[in-house]
Amino acid sequence: MKKILSIVLILLIFAVCLLYKEDITSYLVTTFANLDRTPTSLVNNAYSANKNYQYVQLTNNFSPQNRQDIMNIYYTVLNSGMTDFTFYCSKEYKNCIEDVNYISDNQTLLSNINNFVPVYYIFQNLDTEFDSLGKVTIHITHTYEPAQIQVLETTITNILNEIITDDMNTEEKIKTIHDYVINHTKYDIDRSDKKVTTYHSDTAYGTLIEHFGICGGYADSMKLFLDRLNIPNYKISSENHIWNLVYINNHWYHLDLTWDDPVTSTGEDVLEYDYFLITSEELKNLETDQHIYDLEVYRELKDN
Questions:
Q1: Alpha carbon distance 107, 95 (integer Å)
Q2: Cα gap 169→130, rounded to integer Å
Q3: Which residues have C-beta within 8 Å of that of residue 4, sequence separation ≥ 6?
Q4: Domain 146-303 in the same topology as domain 67-142
Q5: pLDDT (tens digit, 9 = 90+) per residue, 162-209?
Q6: Chain-centre distance of CA 123, in angstroms?
Q7: The domain 67-142: what is its CATH number?
Q8: DSSP element (H, E) containing 205
Q9: How many other CB atoms sit within 10 Å of the CB of residue 161?
Q10: Are 151 and 209 in contact (CB under 8 A)?
Q11: DSSP conformational letter for 166
């Protein structure tokens, strides 16, 4: 009799398992998958910056509660210089994966975040993996290789020692660097117009080492110098162009080396100052359709 009861009980359990197998499987997967929801330990590397902006801020909260928290995580991880990072959505944040998907697919948003990141840690590619259980992993391929960084650091040190003196004020230092970069760089027309990639002209390496640049290279170069001099700054971009914002004398100014290094029909080298430390109003009055930016991203300019 006991044997029969045991068989019946086993069959009953088996039947229940068959009937509710999806629910049981989901429960088991969820239970075991959530045993360890510890995010990757954040490691700040040599060129990380301790800087917050109105658009994104550094964070130590890797269990996001809203979309801004996710954006802050992306900024923090990029700023750190890490190449891989895993975090987990808060169980209370029901739309977390939906928002992760939105951010990871929004190249304009990610590019905007990239403008606030130290130059050596900007991304060339950024991939995000996530699952329905709230695990999110960011994979970053950096634009600058370690060998390029080493060469650039030595070059920047040598240039600053050569052209900057202690008796210069902040504006004079910026002007001296502005002039040096323009006088030692040619605008890479082939890359800009013909899409022919001969130089790393979209980076500071192309601008400062190979002496050919496009807007990304000019902006990265200027930011590296400004950071070395501890002058507050970040990059600002429109749909097709990028330049620098610089904070001096309690005011934010636009600085566009690309447009101060115009291409001439004769091939003559020209150095201009039309876009040298100008206000937003002055930029607007110069008007080009290449300098239309989003005030919701570059919010510091709202109170300028």
A1: 20
A2: 49
A3: none
A4: no
A5: 999 999 999 999 999 999 999 999 999 999 888 899 999 999 999 999
A6: 6
A7: 3.30.1710
A8: helix 204-205
A9: 9
A10: yes
A11: T
- In terms of DSSP bridges, do strands 212-213 and 186-187 run parallel, antiparallel, or are they unpaired? parallel
Q: For residue 153, what are the CA distances in angstroms to 203, 262, 268, 271?
A: 14, 27, 30, 25
Token output for 156: 């920047």
Architecture of domain 146-303: Roll (3.10)
CA–CA separation, 95 and 57 (whole Å): 21
> From CA 47, how far away is CA 256, in angstroms rounded?
24
Residue type (1 letter), 42: L
Residue 165: which H helix or E strand, with range? none
Apex CA 165: angle with CA 161 and CA 166, to 5°? 120
Are 70 and 104 in contact, with CB atoms under 8 Å apart? no
pTM across the whole model = 0.88
So where are the chain's domains? 67-142, 146-303
At 302, the amino acid letter reads K
Q: What is the pLDDT of residues 75-127, one digit of tens each?
A: 999 999 999 999 999 999 999 999 999 999 999 999 999 999 999 999 999 99
Residues counted in the chain: 304
Give the number of other CB atoms < 10 A from CB of residue 241: 20
